[in-house]
Design goal:
Number of strands: 13
Number of helices: 15
Shape: globular
Strand content: 5-15%
Distance between the termini: 51 Å
CATH class of the domain at 95-321: Alpha Beta
CATH superfamily of the domain at 95-321: Type I PLP-dependent aspartate aminotransferase-like (Major domain)
Order of helices and strands: HHHHEHHEHEHEHEHEHEEHHEEHEEEH
Helix content: 25-40%
Structural class: alpha/beta
Length: about 425
């Protein structure tokens, strides 16, 4: 079991942050163990127990999980204990075991998982490792995060590749059509977000990857918002790479992430940042001609050196936490909250523009919107003054707002946001 009562009660630094009793924590932990059973997405008693396990202050309403997913107490405990284990014994390693756990969580093989620090690490590994020549084309969206946009823009600056863009449509089918219309004989890469950070639309990733494969194009997916929100099977998706992090919907430690590289693609994707672990152990400098050996025969070739044991123990605990509740239960809960948010925004009439699709397959936990006649940064300030945290979206001139809900949220918190919108529009 991922929660150790004795260790938790010994953790004075964790207990000091609690606003409720130790017994309430233990009771909440017991209550959230679903045992693999279905939990109703409107069972507020159950989800309130889940909320009890987060150190989020009750002084404000947090509706910005798409930027940072607060970790629950068991994850915080695991990070602390992981650090202590290493410092007690002076042992080296242990973090590499996380790759196996991550692989099972996202539908991959252990040898296809590279540990990284964030999504940007993974995107840079793929952006620079894909074999491209001057004039080769890469397709991106007009809704990119800087972490997916800037590496490709930088490669255009240095290597002369061509970037072509499309705006995601209101339906998955039309989005796919827009991508297909951009493909030419020079197209080499489709590098798009699974879920754009701007408005949370779920792109038809499996169909995009299938289209890419049929055309002999590499499929490079920015998966920042996938794990912990969606039921993932990367083998079924068919992508060449999938870069993501543990600190958003997975609720894991900040500064942890991973990159999936399809096994057959590892011979194509060149690695540049190498060190201990990214080799096959047969290098030798004590020769007239120093010997390199070969790259590791797995995704470890894409990262090397010492990693933070405590942080990756936290990733393990985050996966355990999710699986104790049940990934399907989590997906259902946050999709239900996302749908409720959409309904409430749409109920406000023409003064509010919802920019996230309402199509069932294209929406989940994130919604983007604009308030007509109200400057978006001013509304953000209004929310901050009233202790509600959302996100402004200045990227690519969108000048909009974003709200993202997770399992620690409830409808009453969404209602608080709606009340602020009503005040803003008079």
């Amino acid at each position: 079991m991922f929660f150790n009562r004795r260790n938790f009660l010994r953790s004075a630094s964790v207990l000091a942050t609690l606003s409720f009793t130790e017994m309430e924590v233990i009771a909440a932990m017991k209550q959230i163990q679903s045992g693999g059973k279905s939990v109703n997405d409107t069972d507020e008693k159950y989800w309130n127990n889940v909320r009890q396990l987060f150190p989020l202050t009750h002084d404000f309403t947090y509706l910005n999980n798409g930027t940072m997913g607060p970790s629950p107490y068991p994850v915080i405990e695991a990070v602390k204990n992981g650090m202590m284990d290493g410092d007690h014994h002076g042992s080296y390693g242990g973090w590499e075991h996380t790759a196996k756990k991550l692989a099972a969580f996202v539908g991959a093989n252990e040898d296809e998982i590279a540990l990284t620090h964030n999504v940007t690490d993974g995107i840079n590994i793929t952006c620079w490792g894909v074999p491209l020549r001057r004039g080769d084309e890469v397709i991106l969206t007009t809704h990119e995060h800087v972490g997916n946009a800037f590496p490709w823009l930088n490669r255009r600056k240095l290597h002369g590749i061509v970037i072509k863009t499309f705006t995601p449509a209101s339906t998955a089918d039309e989005t796919l059509n827009r991508i297909a219309a951009l493909i030419t004989k020079r197209t080499r890469v489709i590098a798009v977000p699974h879920i754009p950070c701007t408005q949370g639309q779920i792109l038809p990733a499996k169909e995009i990857c299938k289209l890419a494969r049929e055309k002999g194009i590499y499929s490079i997916i920015d998966g920042a918002h996938g794990p912990g929100m969606l039921m993932l099977d990367l083998h079924d998706m068919g992508c060449d790479t999938y870069a993501t992090c543990s600190h958003k919907w997975m609720l894991g430690p900040k500064g942890t992430g991973f990159l999936y590289v399809r096994k057959d693609f590892q011979q194509t994707l060149q690695t540049y940042f190498v060190g201990g672990g990214s080799d096959n152990g047969k290098w030798n400098m004590a020769l007239d001609t120093p010997k390199m050996g070969k790259y590791a025969d797995n995704a470890h070739r894409y990262y090397g050196g010492t990693q933070a044991l405590g942080l990756y123990k936290g990733v393990d605990a985050a996966i355990d936490f999710i699986e104790t509740i049940g990934m399907q239960n989590i997906h259902n809960r946050i999709k239900s909250l996302g749908a409720y948010t959409q309904q409430q925004l749409l109920s406000l009439g023409d003064r509010v523009e919802l920019i996230t699709p309402t199509e069932e397959r294209s929406r989940c936990a994130v919604n983007g919107f604009r308030i007509k006649g109200v400057e978006y940064t001013k509304f953000y300030d209004q929310c901050s003054t009233n202790k509600i945290r959302i996100r402004t979206v200045a990227e690519n001139g969108l000048n909009s707002l974003r709200v993202s809900t997770h399992i620690y949220n409830n409808r009453a918190e969404v209602d608080l946001l709606i009340e602020q919108i009503k005040k803003a529009i008079g």
